[in-house]
Every structure is written in structure tokens, then in C-alpha cells.
UniProtKB/TrEMBL annotation:
One CC-aspect GO term: cytosol
PANTHER family: UBIQUITIN-ACTIVATING ENZYME E1, UBIQUITIN-LIKE MODIFIER-ACTIVATING ENZYME 5
GO molecular function, one term: ATP binding
Protein name as it appears in the record: Ubiquitin-like modifier-activating enzyme 5
Any GO BP: protein ufmylation
UniProt signal peptide: none
UniProt similarity note: Belongs to the ubiquitin-activating E1 family. UBA5 subfamily.
Keyword Zinc tagged: yes
Residue span(s) of domain THIF-type NAD/FAD binding fold: 64-318
SUPFAM superfamilies: Activating enzymes of the ubiquitin-like proteins (SSF69572)
InterPro entries (UniProt xref): D-isomer_DH_CS1, ThiF/MoeB/HesA, ThiF_NAD_FAD-bd, Ubiquitin-activating_enz
Key words of the record: ATP-binding, Metal-binding, Nucleotide-binding, Ubl conjugation pathway, Zinc
Length: 427
């Protein structure tokens, strides 16, 4: 539409210089152009208005009703807290772009987007990007799409390469920015999601998060597009990305030399969509504190296999900031364990405070499973008149009957008589 308006302005300028005999025909042409632009404006998609407060009201015009249902069903304590969180996504490619869209639809408060690349037609096999965005930077294209989906989300885009000195400094300063939540402790973001496709960029994210003591999640998809993984990295508590480097990097091989000319990695939107879904699912569990956050979760598409594991930090890690975070974690362990124990005790007291259900239509009660009060059950409970229990209860011990008294002398005398009768001559 922008090009159409520029042409219309040019036509108006030329109209001023037109001779009087051609004036009427030029005006008719301009009328047709204006009508065409009006039709374009009417056919353009309507933008969603901002919503001040999240509501659980179940109406068609409420964009958050399905999300707030998680709170009504007891999955999340307070879903509206999602608006307080800031999430940084490094790499707006096959995984990062889909993760950004999911978080935007979930209503996250603030998204920081980092990438240096532009949209190409070769990216159309993936989700999110559209052909008309070819040539735009991925960050600008993402802001264009995401702002239309949910204008409530604060979007910040950074078109830069974080592996350069200047790019890394800008990356660090943007993570420290607390304008969105000045009262927040630590850095200005709650979680960093790494969705890059090379080891060098992962190491840059790892260095920044170790220095800032920032929790982050790493993700990746294999070159053959049939496997992927996500990993939670908490500085000092879990292994950082330098604690256990990949074999190719530990061997001193530059991964950039492994790429051959004219050969690119495979890419499946299905695999990337699955990995992005797992990444955002664990992001929501981490931020809103529900369920169990996976420390490491793999995905093998060929066998639908999801391996899990947990990696401890390496005390001899080559990253000095990681070693410092490990020392801080060990020092704070007693206080952390005491707080966790106190929380468990408090939760136990809450469960013993009263009955789980106020109404009890069937008069169901819970009794102590210790020793029974009596050995016999009343014969009248639950039985019609005249019917009694024939078999004893399985929990009642019945002693064996006492043996009858036997006279050994009488038995011996009886046996002797029988022997004498057998030995007597037959007459």
C-alpha cells in the first residue's frame, strides 16, 4: 500500500502541470486509484487491541480465557504473573522464531530478540517466516509478526552478532537493563533461551550467563534434522556449556572448517517445532513454577525416544566465571537446604489442617491402619436379619484347636491284645 500512495502523490504532482483539456480524464484516473486504495485498506487484517488486565471470562473476544483456565483448574497458581517476566531469545531461526511466537501467544511480558541474519526463501521450509518478509532482518520480521499477534508483549530487537566484541557488550548491557522491572533482583531478564546453531554463539551465551549468574536454557537440532534436545543451565548448580565440551571442540577442531561448500544441514519444521514446544513448555514451568523442569531432555524422531539426564558441574572447568559460581553455590547450600526443609514442613502442616472435601455424601472416613480394635466383626453390620458371618476375617488370628488328652498306657495294652490275637493258633 505504501508504494500505491507514493504513485498517487506523483500523479497529483503531474496533474498540476496537465493542460486543461486532459484535466477531467486525469481526475477520473485518480478517483479509480483512490477507490482501489480504499478497498485495500478494508481488506487489510484488523489489529488486536491491547488488554489491560487478563481475565478468565469465557467469551469469544477474550484472548486469554483459555490460558487463564490453567489457573481455574489448579495447574498454575497465578497465570497473570506471566506478564511480569522477561525472556531473551538468542537466534531467531527454526527453533527461536517458533519459541518467540509461542511465548507471545502465552502473553509473556517482554521478549528480547537477537539475530544478525536476514530472511531468505531458503527459510520457507520452516515455520513462522513468510515469503513477503524475504530481505528483512529476522529481528524486524519477528517484531512485525509478533506485534500483530499480541500487542500486549513488549518487544525489543537487536540486530547484531553476539560473538563479536561489540555485539557481546551490547548483549550484556541489554540483559542488565531493568527498566521493565526495576525491583527485580539480578539481571533484567528472568530467562535466556539459546536457539543458535553453532558452538561459538553458545559459548558467548554461556560466558554472559556465567558472569551475570543468569539461568538459561540451551536448545539444538541435529544436522540430519531427526533429533534435538533442550538443556537447563543454572550457573554453579549444573554443568555449564564449557564443563563438558563436545568432542569435536575438545579435540581442537574449528567447527567452521567442517562445513563443505554447497552442502547445508537438513531442516524439518516438524523436528524444530517439537524442540521449540519442549523448550517453551519448560520455560513456562520454570517461570510459573508448576510441574517438573527437565534438566536435559533429548528427542529422537526416528524412534520417538526422549532420553533424560542430569550433568553436574566440572570443578576443573576452563571457564573461570563458572568456577566462581560453583564456589558460591557450595557456600549457600546449607541455607538453601534449610529453607527447602522449612517449606516442606509448612506444606505438610497445610495438608493436616482439615478435610480435603467439605461435603462427604457417602460418609467415607479414613481410619488408622494399625491393630484392629476387636477380633470379631459385628454380625449385624451390612447383613440382612438372620444372616451372620460364617468365615472369620482375614485380619483375625485364629489359634489352632488344643489337642485332646491321650492315655499312652491304655494304647499300649490295646496293641498287646491285638498282637496276641494274631499269634494265637487257629483251632
Amino acid at each position: 500500500m505504501e508504494a500505491e500512495l507514493k504513485e498517487l502523490l506523483n500523479d497529483l504532482e503531474s496533474l498540476k502541470r496537465s493542460p486543461p483539456d486532459l484535466l477531467n480524464s486525469s481526475i477520473d484516473k485518480l478517483k479509480m486509484r483512490v477507490e482501489h486504495l480504499s478497498n485495500l485498506a478494508k481488506s487489510s487484517p484488523a489489529r488486536r487491541s491491547k488488554v489491560k488486565d487478563m481475565s478468565a471470562e469465557v467469551i469469544d473476544s477474550n484472548p486469554y480465557s483459555r490460558l487463564m483456565a490453567l489457573q481455574r483448574m489448579g495447574i498454575v497458581h497465578n497465570y497473570e504473573r506471566i506478564r511480569e517476566f522477561s525472556v531473551a531469545i538468542v537466534g531467531i531461526g527454526g527453533v527461536g522464531s517458533v519459541a518467540a511466537e509461542m511465548l507471545t501467544r502465552c502473553g509473556v511480558g517482554r521478549l528480547l530478540l537477537y539475530d544478525y541474519d536476514t530472511v531468505e526463501l531458503a527459510n520457507m521450509n520452516r515455520l513462522f517466516f513468510r515469503p513477503e518478509q524475504v530481505g528483512m532482518t529476522k529481528t524486524d520480521a519477528a517484531v512485525q509478526t509478533l506485534s500483530d499477534i499480541n500487542p500486549d508483549v513488549v518487544l525489543e530487537s537487536y540486530t547484531l552478532n553476539i560473538t563479536t566484541v561489540q555485539g557481546f557488550e551490547t548483549f550484556m548491557s541489554s540483559l542488565k537493563n531493568k527498566k521493565f522491572r526495576p525491583e527485580k533482583e539480578g539481571s533484567g531478564v528472568d530467562l535466556v533461551l539459546s536457539c543458535v546453531d553453532n558452538y561459538e554463539a553458545r559459548m558467548a551465551v554461556n560466558q554472559a550467563c556465567n558472569e551475570l549468574n543468569q539461568t538459561w536454557m540451551e536448545s539444538g537440532v541435529s544436522e540430519d534434522a531427526v533429533s534435538g534436545h533442550i538443556q537447563l543451565l543454572i550457573p554453579g548448580e549444573t554443568a555449564c556449556f564449557a564443563c563438558v565440551p563436545p568432542l569435536v571442540v575438545a579435540s581442537g577442531i574449528d567447527e567452521r572448517t567442517l562445513k563443505r561448500e554447497g552442502v547445508c544441514a537438513a531442516s524439518l519444521p516438524t523436528t524444530m517445532g517439537v524442540v521449540a514446544g519442549l523448550l517453551v513448555q519448560n520455560t513456562l514451568k520454570y517461570l510459573l513454577q508448576f510441574g517438573q523442569v527437565s534438566r536435559y531432555l533429548g528427542y529422537n524422531a526416528l524412534k520417538d525416544y526422549f532420553p533424560t539426564m542430569e550433568m553436574k558441574p566440572n570443578p576443573q572447568c576452563s571457564n573461570a566465571a563458572c568456577v566462581d559460581r560453583q564456589k558460591e553455590y557450595i557456600i549457600a547450600r546449607p541455607a538453601r537446604e534449610a529453607a527447602a526443609k522449612a517449606e516442606m514442613v509448612a506444606e505438610a502442616l497445610l495438608f493436616t489442617g482439615g478435610p480435603l472435601h467439605a461435603d462427604n455424601e457417602w460418609s467415607i472416613s479414613v481410619v488408622d491402619d494399625g491393630e484392629p480394635d476387636g477380633l470379631d466383626f459385628p454380625s449385624s453390620v451390612g447383613l440382612p436379619e438372620g444372616v451372620v458371618h460364617e468365615l472369620p476375617s482375614a485380619d483375625v488370628f485364629r489359634p489352632p484347636p488344643a489337642p485332646e488328652a491321650v492315655c499312652l498306657a491304655d494304647d499300649l495294652e490295646d496293641l498287646r491284645r491285638q498282637l496276641d490275637a494274631l499269634n494265637a493258633p487257629q483251632g
